[in-house]
Design goal:
This protein is mainly α and 176 residues long. It contains nine helices and no strands. 18% of the residues are buried.
Length: 176
């Protein structure tokens, strides 16, 4: 019997994209069309992003579960509810860091009364270049040591790792 591969329309990606990849693609189509237009291969990008999100959620949830002591006298349903809440919290954190990124127009940044114009420009620069690193259109070696530090400042650890800006990745490349 022949193998049949089903594919969705090009703007929705293929069936290989998991729920996180689909969520990212929908979010980016709506709020980050400029970023999507810069991607060379949507299917590969959102498949990889979805897999990375899934792996990170699993890793954080596992770490939380193992690091949380058992509650004495807790019923099965109470424990299941507590573990489910931990998973939802881990998932929400990872989605905020890697998927639900601000809109291309950076309205959130420009409307923030706590940021001056120079800080808005700095944040826009960081977001743009972190996105370029994630998409594989640039590499950490394309930036000076000072620029790499600006990119790393305040970025979530997983994003630093995914972009190749982690200490380990920079050492392997001879950049640290």
């Amino acid at each position: 019997m022949p193998l049949i591969v089903l594919r969705c329309p090009p703007d929705l990606g293929s069936v290989d994209v998991n729920q996180y990849g689909r969520l990212a693609q929908q979010h980016w189509q709506e709020l980050r069309p400029g970023s999507i237009a810069q991607l060379d291969d949507l299917e590969t990008f959102f498949t990889q992003l979805g897999n990375d999100v899934q792996d990170e959620v699993r890793a954080r949830w596992t770490a939380q579960r193992l690091g949380t002591p058992t509650v004495a006298g807790e019923s099965y349903l109470e424990r299941a509810g507590r573990l489910r809440q931990m998973r939802h919290e881990a998932e929400a954190d990872v989605l905020r860091e890697l998927v639900l990124l601000p809109a291309d127009d950076d309205a959130d940044l420009t409307d923030d009364p706590h940021l001056n114009e120079a800080q808005v420009v700095q944040e826009q620069w960081r977001e743009h270049h972190l996105h370029e690193l994630l998409a594989g259109r640039s590499a950490p070696g394309d930036f000076s040591a000072a620029e790499r530090e600006r990119l790393r400042a305040g970025a979530p650890a997983r994003l630093v790792e995914l972009t190749g800006l982690s200490d380990e990745a920079l050492r392997r490349q001879g950049l640290l």
